[in-house]
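Working notes for the structural subgroup meeting. M.R. asked for a predicted model of this chain before we commit to crystallization trials. I am recording the input and output together here so anyone reviewing the notebook later can reproduce the run.

Input as submitted:
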Amino acid sequence: MNILIDSCSYNCQNAGDLAMLMVAVSRLRELWPAANINVITNAPHLMARHCGAVDTVPVRGRRLLLEDRLLGRIHRQLPHRLTQTWSTLEQELRLRQPGLFKTSIGLKAALFGRDARDVCTFLDAIGQADLVVVNGAGIIADAFRDHALGILTTLELANRRGVPTALFGQGLGPIEDGELRRRASKTLGGASLIGVRESLTGPQLLSSLGVDPKHVVVTGDDAIELAYSEYGRSHGSQGGEAIGVNVRIAPYAEVRPDLLPLLRSVLQCAGQQHGARLVPIPIAHHGGGMDVSALHDLLEGIGESDGGAALQTPRDVIRRVGICRIVVTGSYHGAVFALSQGIPAVALVKSRYYLHKMAGVAHEFGTGCHMVNLDEDDLSTRLSEAISRAWAEADGVREPLLQSAADQIRRGKAAYRRLRDLVSCGSATSPAELSYNV
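Returned structure, recorded in token form:
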């Protein structure tokens, strides 16, 4: 059994996505103990550290495949309409005859002294796979259009070979981009099983794309299992007393640095009011900083101002969350890590993308998650009140949150077992349409 996992977060620099991958690998190993597991990644050393004995496939191979132009730069000289027609045809050829592009890339590599081995490794991994799994992330959305199209390419290549495909822990949408909708509709309908994080928008979006509801299941986030298990081992029924803080400064969140002074003022008052220290909860470390840099600027002089730079693994972050009574977070997985340990969260939202993500996790847990829209008037008052509500309810919501986490873990594991049964009985496969030979 050869299982290929598209990790979605290829640099292993997002603690939430990495936690999902760790759980996915663990669950697949439990179901297929003798399987060879291959993971598409940019960070093989980190993959070995967090996921153990897995083989790695360079995502660069897929990128080279998608970027290759059979006509080279000649297509730029064609009339606009002809260029569009050729690009569409080229994309179809890329999926129907990837071996043709493999040859093209190899010839160009030999001519210009480049290394094309990654393309061969990527295509060979799909060619040898008995199952392709896309690990959870909030990637198939307009906010990450090009990234999403790459993941869909992995699935399309597998579908065309008749290899069963599945997606787990998915946070889907919004998707309004025409090309992304077309490709998602074409590709996701061929999946044997799609596990979505939440029931508010994911199933409805998939239905609008023509995906059969029988192939869709709501599981919650895979990372819940890691956070819940860490809570059980480390904390028992003891609640923390700190206020955890995360803020996501990024285009897809639509949050700018000029919001930090207001947040800083509210958090400083909250810390003083409740006698709580403010501790950073970094989730994304892209570029060596991201959340860490934003949290350093936010908390300098009023809390722990190292930005949480020392928290290098998902378990490090989860344990930091565990010392908190509440968490104020602009990151989706900041909320997941808190709620899964019975800790209420105050979710900061602005973009449609984050509104969907946070509303989904709040709905699945049912209590303990207070959403604050950063675009609405009187933000200071609304945020202060949300923090006070979360603080006051912390003891009362702990058990309901933990029960909800346990239920979502149960549903997630059941979905993986369902995939195993589909693959075992052969109902997840269909005759291969095309081979990889030129």
